[in-house]
């Protein structure tokens, strides 16, 4: 059945715009007031849509939250992968530095993203927790692959990097959230330098 056009815009275009408004409203509300304090009615008011429209796009608040979580982590993973690829000929510390900059730019340049992805996502429900941990596992596999490349280049000793990757993810999340939400803003260069030190030590330690 052909897509109907009203006012020069198709049904698909209008739905995509409505979904984007809901995602933007979710980022604003979850990233400022917090997930627990944000109702579907509030989200709809901010987005300028009806509750019926909300349920046409998302089955629940949790679904909106995980969609936003996916958005920020898909962006971050893509940028970090691009950073490592573009610096393939650089020393380990420089590769890590560029990757950390890419991650911070993707997840914390806007403090709302940092709060959503580091705080609001935690402890919502068993389903959301499984979703968060699935993303953590994806990042662990990504970091383990980079560690193996460092071993192949003679920059690190061969070992099991799984626990190091899990620990690094926790450290990065805490540092990024602390930086994005600290009352007295710490220079981002200091945060990057600290993460580079932690990551390099995790990769090159015995």
From TrEMBL:
Record's keyword terms, sorted: DNA-binding
Taxonomic path: Bacteria, Bacillati, Actinomycetota, Actinomycetes, Pseudonocardiales
GO molecular function: DNA-binding transcription factor activity; transcription cis-regulatory region binding
Organism for this UniProt entry: Prauserella muralis
Name of this protein: Transcriptional regulator
């Amino acid at each position: 059945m052909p897509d109907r056009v009203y006012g020069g815009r198709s049904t698909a275009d209008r739905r995509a715009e409505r979904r984007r408004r809901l995602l933007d409203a979710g980022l604003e509300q979850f990233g400022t007031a917090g997930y627990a304090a944000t109702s579907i009615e509030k989200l709809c008011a901010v987005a300028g849509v009806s509750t019926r429209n909300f349920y046409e796009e998302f089955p629940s608040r949790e679904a909106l939250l995980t969609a936003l979580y996916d958005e920020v982590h898909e962006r971050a993973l893509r940028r970090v992968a691009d950073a490592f690829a573009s610096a393939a000929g650089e020393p380990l510390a420089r590769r890590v530095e560029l990757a950390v900059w890419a991650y911070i730019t993707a997840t914390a340049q806007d403090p709302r993203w940092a709060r959503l992805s580091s705080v609001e996502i935690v402890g919502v429900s068993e389903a959301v927790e499984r979703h968060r941990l699935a993303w953590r596992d994806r990042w662990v596999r990504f970091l383990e692959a980079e560690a193996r490349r460092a071993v192949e280049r003679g920059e690190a000793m061969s070992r099991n990097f799984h626990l190091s990757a899990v620990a690094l993810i926790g450290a990065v999340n805490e540092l990024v959230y602390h930086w994005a939400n600290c009352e007295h803003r710490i220079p981002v260069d200091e945060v990057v330098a600290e993460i580079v030190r932690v990551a390099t030590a995790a990769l090159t330690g015995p």
